[in-house]
Amino acid sequence: MDPHNFHGKDIPHIKLDPKMTMEDLVDVYASSGYNGRQLGDAAKLYAKMIKEDATICLTISGAMTPVGFGGIVKTLIERGFVDWIVTTGANVYHEDHFAWGLPVKQGSFDVDDMKLYENEIVRIRDVYIKFNETLEAQDALIQKMFGDDFPDKPFTTAEFCNLMGKISKEKAKHPEKSFVTAAYDYDVPVYISTIKDSSLALNLAVHRLQNKIYNLDFVKEIIEQAAIVYDSKKSGILELGGGVPKNTAQQTGPLLDQILKREDGGQDYIIQITDARPDTGGLSGATLQEGKSWGKVQDAHDGMVTVYVDATIAFPILALYVLSNQKTRKPKRLYKKLGKLYEKLSEDYFKNPDNKKKKSKNKTKTC
Q1: In this structure, which CATH number among 3.40.930.10, 3.40.910.10, 3.10.450.50, 3.20.20.70 belongs to the domain 22-355?
Q2: pLDDT tens-digit map of 182-235
Q3: Active-site residue numbers?
Q4: Whole-structure pTM over 0.85, yes or no?
Q5: Domain locations in the chain?
Q6: Which of 172, 179, 240, 241 has CB atoms 3.0–4.6 Å from 168's, for a disulfide?
């Protein structure tokens, strides 16, 4: 449709009804304008991704789990509406508080932080976390999980989170209150885009000082992520915020095309929920259309919606909309398939005669 002509759907004179459903409310948004319209279009695009059985990645930036939204992620995993996740270490760390019954409370943003410090209360905007009862208790749990018994071999952050989910499943007080545990149950890979920039990594320091080595195979995990997209008939991303998780999921396209010469073309669908501006040059605010120039998306004109709104407002609406009208999907259980997906991408890469030569040159010589 040519956007430069006077045609399109009529704007209705909106009337609300007490009996309206979430689907009705999303229709109201979609029939309006501005970011309300974008929110409605995003919800409908998410439903389309599910209906077309696209492989869906959820990226999570910002402090979403301290406000309890890990429960929404858990429900989406259980319904088969999220197939793999890229998030920050902080979201994984704070999610585990709920599984182990560690206190997190509503507080205030209009406060004297000097007094909070004296009272051993840590603040994330208007969320309070106790220093001893929560943070130090969580630290002890993480240190025990990844201490002497953690394998001395290269690992990915998906393996790290899978083990964390397994332990919380078996030993936590409330294992049902964790999307990491749900990811373990449903074989959903959870990648931490910058694990060293979180309390998860800080807690490894006590073991490193005792000469325990942690070998993160970050190259293997970016290949695994690309292999997931490469094997998908259709793939999409639901992005909550921007930052490194956003780029980690989107860079699968350039890895496949620019580096591995696969001509995959990038993601079929992307929904971006952001409050970042595009004009500063930062990735968090970069438009999805700009991503086409990098090969991150298939089409610069279709299959993408950006909503400029706080994710704590938009995410529950998107989630409840698809939970209301989409049937549960069979879980793809990608975590258990990562080895085969990796091998498939590797085999296809080396089928190219030029790449066979590279493989030959890179063989290690033995004495």
Answers
A1: 3.40.910.10
A2: 999 999 999 999 999 999 999 999 999 999 999 999 999 999 999 999 999 999
A3: 296
A4: yes
A5: 22-355
A6: 172
